[in-house]
Design goal:
The structure is a homotetramer.
Chain A (H helix, E strand, L loop, with lengths): L7 E6 L3 H13 L3 E7 L3 H10 L6 E3 L2 H5 L6 E4 L6 H10 L3 E5 L6 H13 L5 E4 L6 H11 L6 E11 L6 H8 L2 H4 L2 H12 L10 E9 L14 E8 L3 E11 L6 E6 L2 E5 L8 E5 L2 E4 L5 H21 L8 H20 L3 E2 L17 H9 L1
Parallel strand pairs in A: 1-2, 1-4, 2-3, 4-5, 5-6, 7-10
Antiparallel strand pairs in A: 7-11, 8-9, 8-15, 9-10, 11-12, 13-14
Helix pairs in contact in A: 1-10, 4-5, 5-11, 9-11
Chain lengths: ~375, ~375, ~375, ~375
């Protein structure tokens, strides 16, 4: 007896570390979706796809545009390198596909804006940026508590993203196009700040940016400095109406991946992952008690990624709003770039209530394109 | 492009709380398996199946024997009430199907033995009893540590199964056929004891039963007494060659499901779930710090059930041994029934090295069938 | 200006590991007490006392009877080897001194009884057995919660005492006079059981003993067997009116001292030390997260010992009842000896409601003296 | 027999919340010290002293200068209101007394400098500012680990001081003279930063200040704004040579006192109090698992205060350096005042390697006295 279920035909673009995961999730763990096509320009990724995806009936493309023409294709999950996220998103939208794009849309705000313009020009299409933590059960529970008023007004948010140090990873080279540590790592924390603090703004909209300050050090990788980057960064973002977020990111956390978040309200605090662990096992050995923590973001967020795929699919099939607003995702990139700018300029950067930068004494005005973007958002 | 993957055609028998989960897992989360048929005699379960399974191409049967004749069916997952587990398993085996049966095979040892006889008569079929904890990542990590010698020789095992008290559950009535608290709840703990302690027996085989003692109280449900049952039970099982397991089970754990296990070796201890939590969220509120724990076994073991389905499927398709030995599963039932007998008789029950009961002063010898079963195992 | 505070003149008998601690506490951390004398027959201990106590004005005696004659002495803290606890207690009582005696009074019940007789004959004297855990802040908080009804009726108590394995300790030799692991280690757990479960007995008195079962293994020290002892013991004690305590003791806990207790009531559970740690520090290193635990009972209970000294002193000076009832302390020893007997005889031992042993099939009646003691208590 | 121990004759000035504690510690828990005198101008405090101190032979003074003339007095512990710390310290030093002064010496840097000048003019006297956390066992263990190189080079320090919100405390009025939240609360965190980061500076000296940024909000007490203060503050302090400390302070932590510190090095992290708790008790109740945390700094640091008294006494009697360097304590105040200034001015404040402020665009140079102090330190 054949299935009569309506399933979303989706393709995954890019089959690197995270793309392969997305492909696997849409293929095997998202019942209402059907992975029908994938794209990769990389021979090794294609070899992997031939072995792991093709036997399940997935068509492999080495040309992104051709993939978009796959018969019946309805949606694309974009998981290529960041530099082509925006272009691929726009192409997909223009060819009438729903889009789930890995974060960030781009490290270039004007490109982000173009994706937003495309999405607005195609309001029947769902376009979402994949911030996986929003689908993690612990963060979801924290958000429900926040909405329920358990902590009063959310006022301060502290959040960190700390990766295990891996000397074999060429993150110095990677720093050239990652956008820097605040865009690459803290983008998740910024997104969480926008999400949680919105619950406490006067109009429940995005909190309004007021000042940005960032500092950092190159503790293990001095060569990062030539790209204006660091391996440990700390940033403070003030919002209007009395809210503050502050962030820490590190590429040298010894035991593994340790991100954590505190949402501090006027009558309580929610703490996510203050006591990190990779499971429920502890070893009581001669030199003390030990536990492991996740080694990377994927071990930490595996189930969140599956839930993300599911909720995006549901939003498309049931024509519901996607769970993450695109403007918010672009604002997260914007704040990340301003933090990175503050790191490099060693300046505190201020904004007026309309989101325009407050001109500074030395005449170094922000780029025009940028402030226009801000005014429009 | 069509899939060319070989998938296992499996049916699920019984669509109650746990059966519906199994159906869902084989349908949506076990890529190499295909749920093709289900059986239930229950109108509400059939209504559920029509809504949730039939649209995916699953055939619904109201007659178990007919389901076994489903074209191409290769395996059956049995999740009906315990009283028909054995009969359905034997029928499935005799019709050439691989069997994954929910624990326990039966609370009647002679029926367990018959399933074992059938399985032995069909050695090309995979027959496994589903003890889900063996597929939980924390228990698996503990087992790997044990095998790796991290704790020396495993010597003492403490394990508990504590369910949230639910006054609406008719567990007094349920006690009539559950086999009692040691068979119903601690069976998992007993299975864990056999698994972990085997790593420390002289021949790496099952530890040999030496004595069994159990006590209990009816703290919340005095009516349990008429079925020889309790709502809190404590048991000690001694094995030959210096190993002991001790167990606690309770039906009145206030915040939810809290099972935990300690595997104590000559040079270390592994502790699973000493610090129970349902996730990574803690709430810091005016009256202290709070966290939640899973509300039931399914919240606790959801991913383990998925892994169980996957490993069973792999074992069949790849013709590998199933991960849980059937004799071990029957031995777990046996120990559970002896614990229950010890609870009822208020006696400590002893066995010789061959597994025969040591005759007691009052002449109340164990049933003949039982000792024969033991001698054979 | 001189102090006009009335202070209790107290002596400490025995300056071994625990005696030296008591001396220090009464000398420096019990403001209302004044350590005026000490007794030790051991030259090394005397050397220590000359250096550490004598300069503070403490008189050292090498004869216990002479120490009792120290001018103005009002109380004695007895911390010698267990074998002389009872004799020294009785002598102190007879010479009109208040007594704080380290646990146990004796491993010989008839000697315990004699101390009790002496104490009853001198009702104006305070006589207390020092069970330090009762003065630990976590246990005290648990007890307050229990009394406040937070967990309903206390029904099940689980408690363990696990010492760090120290191959240099001659505990095989020590086993000859320690009374065995249930008397030596679990005595504290038994005392806690009597304390907490009393809050749930019909008359708030001591719970009435019903059955005792114990087992054990010699995992690291086979030579213990010749003294009828083990290095890992598990015992169950049933009480009348639906209460059970079960215990574990071990001499091979790898990382240090880990005792813990759960008090399980009809509507909640209190857990003391499920997440052991020696402080608030965790180390996040390349191979995971680590923490230490106390290395011995003194690290764990240091502040409890100080509190014990303080409360005993207050009870004497203010003529209040001592916080631990002497009958309860003797009952703890009694239960410990019965557990040890059950371990050795491999029998479950039963009692009627009056506390008399139920005669067993093989005619091995309990000793007469013992049952008389029980009847009287 | 009288004591022949040499004990330090010490007085306590101020018997408020913290002064009464100090008096108690020197009186009862510092064996080598003898509390001989106290000073308070407050009738309620004097009443308390008459009841609690006088009977132990302590002389009460209502005039500080008279107290300094107490026969045999050798040292003074100053625990009055902050505004007289410096003056009383200088008087004590000039009269030849050793000084343990509560933090901070003053919120006025020039007064701090005067104390330092006095101390330097009397090098035989011990002068120490009491930063109690340095005597906490968990912080001490972390410091030992840091010195032992367990975490590589200490690079980033995060530290927070969060007090329980107490609407009855007049902290708005208090804000007038507290120096502000960064001086009042985070001073401890700053001191910890100086302590731990010194272990990673090129010369093991104090880390050299580079930039200071602070922000804050008045979430619960808007009236704080009129004193340039906030109830939640966040600050970042950059040091030269690649070290950063960042701080959070709050006066609205719902469950109680929660300070915590992370010391992040190039190969590991030490975490103090990430999992706050007031003991080892957890309650498993119908609505989840609960634990309490300390209600105030004293519950958290009680034993650290005792240790501080002991180590100060030992330093004097044994003529050893005091454990906390006075320059470091003044630098902590200085950094706190700069953070507070940054909060108020909304500017990032920079320093050159010599510690002089980098002149800012608007011409608002730092006070001359201040930069001179910095140059000298």
């Amino acid at each position: 007896m054949a299935s009569c279920i309506r399933r979303l035909s989706i393709a995954v673009s890019g089959l690197g570390r995270i793309g392969a995961r997305h492909a696997n999730h849409f293929l095997h763990h998202t019942p209402r979706a059907e992975l029908t096509a994938v794209f990769s320009p990389d021979p090794r990724e294609i070899t992997w796809a031939k072995e792991n995806l093709e036997p399940w009936g997935v068509t492999i493309y080495t040309d992104y545009d051709n993939m978009l023409k796959h018969i019946g294709l309805e949606a694309v999950c974009i998981a290529t390198v960041t530099t082509v996220h925006a272009e691929q998103s726009i192409k997909a939208i223009k060819s009438g596909k729903h889009v789930l794009c890995e974060k960030p849309l781009s490290t270039d705000l004007s490109l982000c804006q173009k994706v937003l313009d495309s999405a607005r020009a195609h309001p029947h299409l769902k376009v979402m940026c994949g911030f996986s933590r929003r689908f993690d059960s612990s963060y979801l529970a924290a958000y429900q508590s926040t909405l329920a008023g358990c902590i009063g007004r959310p006022t301060i948010l502290r959040s960190q993203t700390c990766d295990k140090y891996d000397p074999s990873v060429a993150f110095v080279q990677y720093a050239q196009f990652s956008g820097g540590i605040f865009v690459d790592c803290n983008i998740h924390d910024i997104d969480l700040a926008l999400w949680f603090l919105s619950a406490g703004t006067p109009d429940k909209g995005l909190p309004k940016l007021r000042t940005v300050t960032a500092v950092g050090v190159t503790a293990l990788e001095p060569a990062l400095a030539k790209y204006g980057d660091v391996d440990n960064g700390i940033g403070i973002v003030e919002f209007y109406d009395g809210q503050i977020a502050y962030f820490y990111s590190s590429r040298m956390n010894a035991p593994g991946q340790h991100d954590m978040t505190e949402i501090i309200g006027t009558s309580g605090k929610l703490s996510v992952n203050a006591h990190p662990t990779s499971g429920l096992l502890e070893s009581h050995l001669a030199n003390g008690i030990h536990r492991d923590i996740p080694q990377n973001f994927f071990e930490r967020y595996e189930h969140a990624f599956v839930e993300e795929a599911k909720q995006f699919t549901d939003a498309v099939l049931d024509n519901k709003p996607v769970p993450i607003d695109l403007e918010s995702s672009i604002q997260a990139v914007y704040i990340g770039t301003i933090l990175q700018e503050s790191l490099r300029s060693e300046k505190k950067i201020s904004f007026d209530r309309k989101g325009n930068r407050v001109k500074e004494w030395n005449g170094s005005a922000p780029g025009i394109a940028e402030s226009q973007i801000r005014a429009e958002l």
